[in-house]
Amino acid sequence: MKHTFLSLFCLAFFINACAQSNIIDFISATGSAPVDEKIYITDVIYRDGKFDAIKERIERDSKFKQDYKDVKMGAVIDKAQLIDYKSDTLYLLSNYYVPDASVSITIKTRKGVFDLIHNVDGDYSLRSLEDSYANIPEDEKKSDFLLYETIFTWNIDLLISLIKSSGGLLGSENVMSATRIILKNNQILEKDIIHFEPALRWHLE
Fold first, then answer.
1. What pLDDT does 173 receive?
2. How far is the C-alpha of 141 from the C-alpha of 17, rounded, in Å?
3. Are the C-beta atoms of 190 and 23 separated by less than 8 Å?
């Protein structure tokens, strides 16, 4: 009886672990840890508006949660079938405005690059990145796309150089977060996050 109980407990634990690692939607992809429970996080530190340090850390808590908890947000992304949860790489660029806790998100998958728009009625919609910049001045578009291209190729060394060169000019009330999530067979193989302050204009020295 003791061995039977132990076997059933192990089976239940295994099934529960599989269920927790089964990535089937946007919320589970952003709110779950990789299979090895290691999330690599880089913090780019500013003091008095100037670059100060880079701190790297590993988050091992399997209950780590990203800040994409709005069910409506996830529903819009999943309805558009932007992500292939069996095999895809998901890039997220989020700009947080701390005073009112608002966030703007740009998402890239193999389907393309899209802005997630928070509408006045409280719902969300998707718009292609090119459409978002249809009426934006060319110099501003060039600046922003330099950041997008750096993040969407996940060239961390270049991203750090870009951050150093551009500085945190918008002030500490704005924080950016770039996330890369590698998906395979409905599991997260890797999750990497970098936090930094956004610049008014992005440029390389």
1. 84
2. 44
3. no
